Amino acid sequence: MQSPRDFIEGAIAYNFKNKCIIDEAIQQTRNKRLAFLGDKVVALVIVDSWYRSKRSCGDGYKQLQNYASNRKLACQARGKHIDECIQPGPLNPLSSNPSIHSLATDVEAIVGAVWIDSGRNFGVVKGVMRRLELCPA
């Protein structure tokens, strides 16, 4: 049976050099700082793509809403089965259905972990986000 860490690495096609950081990302009681960072990294990747497209600010805002909303992040967590790998905290016992916000936080934490582990490599993070369908191709 595959460990949660191995499953996530396979799902995002990224192998962590520092296994502790992905372990932190998948523990709801410990992933808040990574999620805060990941939220901003997700936005940066999306806004950078928008900026390069030379489209209007309105289009940039729509793109950010389409790819970085909690609903979209939670949908991808479920669709990629990442939700099954998260170690719940006391507010989300294993028997409960995780909230949209909680699932979005988990995905952001994973993106934040990739950002740190990859040495803040924009291209690597963008590749992970593409595999998670969180940014335009």
From TrEMBL:
SUPFAM superfamilies associated with the record: RNase III domain-like
The keyword Transit peptide is annotated on this UniProt entry: no
Keyword list, A-Z: Hydrolase
Database matches in InterPro entries: RNase_III_dom (IPR000999), RNase_III_sf (IPR036389)
GO cellular component, one term: nucleus
PANTHER family assigned to the protein according to its UniProt record, in alphabetical order: DICER-LIKE PROTEIN 1, DICER-RELATED
Name this polypeptide is given: RNase III domain-containing protein
